[in-house]
Amino acid sequence: MNVSKEVTKDAIFNQVGDWLDGFGYRIVSRDETRPWGGFFVIDEAQIGQFREQFFPEVQLTEAQLKNKLSPKILLAGPGKRLSWQYHHRRAEIWKLVAGEGGIVTSATDTENAPKTLTIGEVIRLEQGERHRLLGLGSWAVVAEIWMHTDPANPSDETDIVRVQDDFARK
């Protein structure tokens, strides 16, 4: 997969979409409207395949597998940063699967120094932990699983508390 900084947003989304199709994933939605890049949402019925392919080292209990897990692929453009954010109703598990990415995390609103991710590294973000994904020298392609902490009220895109945002979103 060509994830260099010269690849256009349309091209990287088409590449990743074709790549996911090649594995037989059903894409529930595709969002290319984010100023930092965007994401693909995978059919939740495929969480077993998604976990096996991208997170074989992560053990999920039978109870967790019965809950909503929301598998996604995030794409962060070169030099772009997602908002400095946290969530009330989810924890997250990330893995850089292609490209160059970084992360900033903190238990408070104060950002720590960024950390460069390595391909295959698993990152666990706790509910309420502040975090920010960074696209570095190329597009960052990150597999993500949402771990809904309130299964009766699952997290969604509205469960983002932005502490800081380069794009002035609230």
Automatic annotation (TrEMBL):
Single GO term (MF): isomerase activity
A Pfam family annotated for this UniProt entry: MannoseP_isomer
Domain spans labelled Mannose-6-phosphate isomerase type II C-terminal: 68-164
Keyword Isomerase among UniProt keywords: yes
Record's keyword terms, sorted: Isomerase
Entry's Gene Ontology BP terms: polysaccharide metabolic process
Keyword hit for Isomerase: yes
Protein name: Mannose-6-phosphate isomerase, cupin superfamily
Organism: Cyclobacterium xiamenense
Species classification: Bacteria, Pseudomonadati, Bacteroidota, Cytophagia, Cytophagales
